[in-house]
Design brief:
Chain lengths: 360, 173, 277
C-alpha cells in the first residue's frame, strides 16, 4: 500500500486523437496527482501576422482548430473589424450566427461520439458520428468545406447563402432532432452509462469559479457564464438566448449541458432563419488596419478571446488568441486528483479538450 | 509474416501538429458513412501492430522524436501516409517558427494526401495507394531475405535504437 | 434425458437474460440497435459509388489558361505561396500538395480565369506540381493593346475614381477634388480591369493609342426633359457612378451632381433621347 507509481499518458494514446501528455502519479489505482505537459502541437501561428496580411490571417486563424473553425474565423474577423471601426452588414451577422451554431451542433455531436468511445460504447460512437455527417453535408452545401469553411472575411461573408438553402437547412435540422433525441436518451438514461458518469469527477460551483472554468464545464457546475448572453456578439440578443445550466458538476452534468445545447442551437438556428433580413453580405473595408480591439466569443468549448492590433498597414502588429481549453485544464487537473485510473479518459474527455486550440 | 498483410492493413494514427480537421476526418473514415473496416482496415493504438502510419499535421521541434519513435517501432514492411496539406509540406504553417515542415523532413513518406482538411474519400484513396507500395516493399523484402539477413539485422538495430531513445527520454523526464 | 433438461435450462436462461433487462428498460440502446437491423445501411460505399459533390465543394484550383494574363495576383493572395506565376516564361505553376483550397486566388483573379473544381487532387506518391502554359503576349488579352505602363489621358479624365474601385491590386489613387490620378507602377498588374471600367475611355497601356472616346455632346450638367421621360430607369442602371435615382411609381428622376462624372453613358442609353449633357 502506498507505493507511488508514475504512469505516462500520451502523447500517442488511443483515447484521444490529439497529443496531450499527462504524468499520472498513482497510489495503487487512485490518481494522486496529474501533471500535464503540453506543447506537442505548438506551431506559433500568432507570429504569422507579421508576414501574412489581414485577409490571409483569417485563413490562418481559422486553422487553429478544425472543430470550431468557423468560430475562430469569426472571432478574428470581429476583432479586426473592431480595430478598423467597421460593422458588417446585418445579413452577414445573421449568417455568421447560424453557421456558428451549426458548428456547435457538429462539435457537440462529435464530442458525444468520442465520449461514448471513451467509455467503450462503440456502437453509440458510430451513431453519433453518423448523425454528425448530416450536419457536415449542410456545411458542405452552403460553404464548400466539411470542416474548414473559409467563408468569413473582414467586412462580411465571402458567399451569400440563399433563403431556399436556409429553409432547407432548417427543415433538415428539425428532422434531425428526433434522431438526436434517440441517441442522447441513451446517454442520459442508460444504466451502464450512468454507472460511468454520475458522481464522477465532481467540480463544485466554488471550485469552478476559483479555477476560472469556462463554457459547458462551468455551466455544468451552475456558473451562469456564457458570452452569448453577456457580450452582444452576433445576433444572439435578438434570438432570446438563455444559457443552459446544470447543478451537479459531475461528468453526467457536463454531458447533459452539451446535449441540451445541441437542441438549443437548433432552436437558435431556426429562430435566426425565420428572422434573417435580405440585403448585402459584404462591404468594402479599408486596406489598412490601425488601432486595437478585443473580442470575446462563445465557442463550443467556452469563452475564447481575440486581440488584434494593427500596424497601420495591411499587416497586424499583434494577434492574440486565448482558447477555452487553456482555461479548463486547471479544472481537469483538479478533478483528476483522487479519481480512479480507469476514470482518467472520462475526466479528460468531459472538459472536451481541444489541444490544437490550446497550443496553437 | 502473413501473405495477407495487404488485405487487412492495420493503421496507427498520430497527430503531428494539425488543426484537428484532418484527425476528425481520419476518424470519420472509421464511422458508418465511410466505414473503412469494410476493407479490413483497423485503427489500432499500438504502433507494433500497425502496417500503415497515418500522420496528420506538420512536424515541429517537440514531436519529431515521437514521430520517429513511432515509425521505428512499426515492423517492416511499413508505409507512411501523410494526411493533409500540413503533413505534406507544412501548408499554411510552413513559415511558423516552430514548424519544421512536412513529415518527409523526418521520416520517408510513401503517399501524400492533399486537402485542407483532407476528405475521407481522399484518405481512402491514399491508403489504397499506400497498399500498392506496401506490397512492393514486401516483395522486395522476400527477395532479399534468403540472400542476406539484412532486414532482420536492421530490425534488431532499430529495436535497440528505439529502446535507447525511450531510455533517454525517460532519463530526461 | 439430462442433456435435454440442460438444453431447456440454457434456452430459458438465455431468454430471461435477453428479455428481462429489455423489459425493464435497462438498456436504452436496444431499440436503436434493433431498428438499425431493418434500415438501409448509411454507408456511402465510396470507391464503388463515386461521391456526389455539392455545387460549392472546394476540391482543387483549375485554370482557364487562355484568359490568364499572368498578372500574379493569385500568387500574391495565396496564403501558402503555392502558386507561382512566370509572366515572361509563360508558366503558371501550382504545388498541389501546398494548396489549402481557400479559394483566395479564385476571388481575386481579375480575369476570372481561375475556378474552384469539385474534385480534389488525387493522392499520389510524389508531391504533385502542375504547370500550365499561359499566353506570354498579353496583347491578345488586354483590351487597349500595347504592353507599356498604364497611362491616363488627363484631358478627357473626369477623375471619377471608377478605375481605382475596379483595380484588384489597389494600384490607383484618384482624388476627385484635387484632380489627381496616380498609378503605382510597382503594384499595377496590367490586367486591364480599369480600362474596361473607364467611362471616358481615357486609360490605355503605353504604346497604343487610347480607344476613341465618344465625344460628349456638352459640358454642362446632366439634364432630363421630364415631359418626355418615361422613368424607365435605364439611365440609373447603366450609370457607372450610381449618381442617378429613378422611381417609376413616384415619377422621380434625380441626379446627384457631385457623383455624376458626366460620362454620357446615360445619354446613349436613354430610349426616349430625353437626356442632355
Amino acid at each position: 500500500m502506498g507505493k507511488r507509481t508514475i504512469i505516462p499518458f500520451g502523447p500517442q494514446h488511443p483515447v484521444l486523437p490529439e497529443p496531450i501528455h499527462l504524468d499520472l502519479v498513482l497510489e495503487d489505482e487512485t490518481v494522486v496527482e496529474a501533471i500535464p505537459s503540453i506543447g506537442y502541437i505548438h506551431r506559433g501561428l500568432e507570429k504569422l501576422c507579421e508576414i501574412k496580411d489581414f485577409n490571409q490571417m483569417v485563413y490562418v486563424i481559422e486553422r487553429i482548430c478544425g472543430i470550431c473553425s468557423f468560430g475562430h474565423g469569426w472571432g478574428a474577423v470581429a476583432s479586426m473589424e473592431g480595430a478598423m471601426g467597421v460593422q458588417a452588414p446585418e445579413r452577414a451577422e445573421y449568417l455568421r450566427t447560424i453557421l456558428h451554431e451549426l458548428g456547435r451542433v457538429h462539435s457537440h455531436l462529435l464530442w458525444l461520439g468520442l465520449l461514448a468511445d471513451g467509455f467503450g460504447f462503440e456502437s453509440l460512437f458510430n451513431h453519433c458520428w453518423r448523425i454528425r455527417e448530416t450536419v457536415l453535408d449542410l456545411f458542405e452545401k452552403n460553404t464548400g468545406g466539411r470542416v474548414i469553411f473559409s467563408i468569413c472575411k473582414v467586412g462580411g461573408m465571402r458567399k451569400d447563402i440563399s433563403n431556399e438553402n436556409l429553409k432547407e437547412m432548417k427543415e433538415v435540422l428539425e428532422g434531425l432532432k428526433a434522431e438526436i433525441k434517440e441517441i442522447t436518451d441513451v446517454f442520459i438514461n442508460d444504466a451502464s452509462v450512468q454507472n460511468r458518469m454520475v458522481g464522477v469527477g465532481v467540480l463544485t460551483k466554488e471550485e469552478a469559479e476559483e479555477l476560472c472554468a469556462v463554457g459547458p464545464v462551468a455551466r455544468a457546475s451552475g456558473v451562469p457564464q456564457d458570452i452569448r448572453m453577456t457580450d452582444n456578439h452576433g445576433v444572439y440578443g435578438k434570438l432570446g438566448f438563455e444559457p443552459v445550466l446544470e447543478e451537479a458538476g459531475d461528468c453526467m452534468a457536463r454531458t447533459v449541458v452539451r446535449i441540451r445545447e445541441v437542441f438549443q442551437s437548433i432552436d437558435l438556428i431556426s429562430a435566426a432563419i425565420d428572422q434573417i433580413p435580405d440585403g448585402p453580405v459584404d462591404m468594402k473595408v479599408p486596406n489598412k488596419i490601425e488601432g486595437e480591439y478585443i473580442t470575446r466569443m462563445e465557442q463550443p468549448r467556452g469563452e475564447a478571446f481575440y486581440y488584434a492590433k494593427g500596424a497601420g498597414t495591411k499587416f497586424l502588429k499583434r494577434m492574440r488568441v486565448r482558447t477555452p481549453t487553456n482555461m479548463n485544464i486547471p479544472a481537469m487537473v483538479k478533478t483528476l486528483a483522487g479519481a480512479d485510473l480507469a476514470d482518467v479518459p472520462m475526466l479528460v474527455l468531459t472538459i472536451d479538450p481541444c489541444i490544437s486550440c490550446t497550443e496553437r | 509474416m502473413s501473405a495477407y498483410v495487404t488485405k487487412s492493413p492495420w493503421v496507427v494514427h498520430y497527430d503531428g501538429s494539425s488543426c484537428n480537421g484532418c484527425d476528425i476526418e481520419v476518424l470519420a473514415c472509421l464511422t458508418p458513412m465511410y466505414d473503412v473496416e469494410r476493407f479490413g482496415i483497423i485503427n489500432c493504438g499500438n504502433p507494433k501492430h500497425a502496417d500503415v502510419f497515418l500522420v496528420t499535421g506538420s512536424v515541429n521541434e517537440q514531436n519529431k522524436g515521437i514521430v520517429k519513435q513511432i515509425y521505428e517501432q512499426m515492423p517492416e514492411p511499413k508505409v507512411v501516409v501523410a494526411v493533409g496539406i500540413c503533413a505534406c509540406s507544412g501548408g499554411i504553417f510552413k513559415d511558423c517558427y516552430n514548424v519544421l515542415g512536412g513529415v518527409d523532413q523526418v521520416i520517408p513518406v510513401d503517399a501524400y494526401v492533399p486537402g485542407c482538411a483532407a476528405r475521407p474519400e481522399a484518405i481512402i484513396d491514399a491508403v489504397v495507394k499506400g497498399l500498392g507500395v506496401l506490397q512492393a516493399k514486401r516483395d522486395a523484402m522476400l527477395e532479399q531475405k534468403p540472400a542476406e539477413e539484412a532486414p532482420a539485422e536492421e530490425a534488431v538495430e532499430e529495436t535497440a535504437e528505439a529502446v535507447e531513445e525511450v531510455k533517454e527520454e525517460g532519463g530526461e523526464e | 434425458m439430462s442433456k435435454l433438461v440442460i438444453l431447456i435450462v440454457i434456452v430459458v436462461a438465455a431468454l430471461v437474460c435477453l428479455a428481462v433487462p429489455y423489459l425493464l428498460g435497462f438498456f436504452k440502446f436496444s431499440k436503436t440497435i434493433l431498428g438499425s437491423m431493418f434500415k438501409k445501411p448509411s454507408t456511402l460505399m465510396y470507391p464503388v459509388k463515386p461521391r456526389e459533390w455539392q455545387e460549392r465543394t472546394r476540391g482543387a484550383v483549375g485554370i482557364n489558361a487562355d484568359d490568364c494574363i499572368g498578372c500574379g495576383m493569385c500568387a500574391r493572395a495565396c496564403p501558402t505561396n503555392a502558386i507561382e506565376v512566370d509572366k515572361n516564361g509563360g508558366e503558371w505553376t501550382i504545388q498541389r500538395m501546398q494548396c489549402i483550397q481557400c479559394s483566395a486566388c479564385v476571388d481575386c483573379c481579375p480575369k476570372d480565369c481561375l475556378t474552384m473544381e469539385n474534385l480534389y487532387t488525387i493522392p499520389d506518391v510524389v508531391k504533385v506540381v502542375d504547370t500550365v502554359e499561359i499566353p506570354t503576349k498579353k496583347a491578345a488579352a488586354a483590351p487597349a493593346g500595347g504592353d507599356g505602363d498604364l497611362e491616363c489621358d488627363k484631358e478627357t479624365c473626369v477623375y471619377c475614381g471608377l478605375c481605382a474601385k475596379a483595380c484588384p491590386a489597389d494600384a490607383l489613387t484618384v482624388d476627385r477634388k484635387e484632380k489627381t490620378w496616380e498609378v503605382d507602377k510597382e503594384a499595377c498588374v496590367k490586367c486591364g480591369a480599369c480600362i474596361d471600367k473607364c467611362p471616358k475611355k481615357s486609360l490605355s497601356f503605353g504604346g497604343a493609342a487610347p480607344a476613341a472616346a465618344e465625344e460628349p455632346s456638352g459640358d454642362g450638367t446632366l439634364k432630363c426633359d421630364l415631359e418626355e421621360c418615361v422613368y424607365c430607369g435605364l439611365c440609373a442602371k447603366n450609370c457607372p457612378a450610381e449618381a442617378l435615382t429613378v422611381d417609376r411609381k413616384e415619377k422621380v428622376w434625380e441626379v446627384d451632381d457631385e457623383a455624376c462624372v458626366k460620362c454620357g453613358v446615360c445619354v446613349d442609353k436613354c430610349p426616349k433621347k430625353c437626356l442632355t449633357l
